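Order emerges. For instance:

***
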Amino acid sequence: MKEVFTEQLRKAWKGLSQMNKAQCVGTDVNTSSRMSVAVKRASLGSTIPTYAHEGDAGMDLYASEDTVIEPGETVIVPTGIAMTIPKGYELQIRPRSGVTVKTKLRVQLGTIDCIFRGAIGVIVDNTAEDCGGSTPRLRNLVNKTEAYDKTYYPKFTYIVRKGDRIAQGVLAPVSHAHFTEVDALDDSPRGGNGFGSTGVSE
């Protein structure tokens, strides 16, 4: 009896694994569930968002023009695209891991509401410190230097090239809350204990 049960369990686990694998690598079930999103090019030569791999949560967002970001600066990198986000969803703007690891550029988290119809921009900080001096060679997104023009910029100035993948966007459902004012809240194990109350180790 034990051997029969074990064999049934093995077959069930194998079937579940195959189903999960099929959903992850991309099947008719996965692709047919994609929602349709209208996208408009707000500037000439802008790039429509793409998914690098089947199963990726985030779509790549591309810069639509060269953008120079000096140390300590915060700029909006244009994508040159606008879209109709389905009602009940938002587009979350998130950093790309490669940009964060390889450069001092930090993409700020953002929310694009479903009622917004303007061109999407990505807020980017250059967290590098200005160590003094200047150079005509700028760092790019793979942290290599390249000559840009005859203008001299502070060291650790970055250039985001047109067509660079600067951020990623994630379509996520939105829930709206109905707020009810009360005199007291229900108790919980944590209560009002806040920042650092649980420590950093067990």
Observations:
- The radius of gyration is 24 Å.
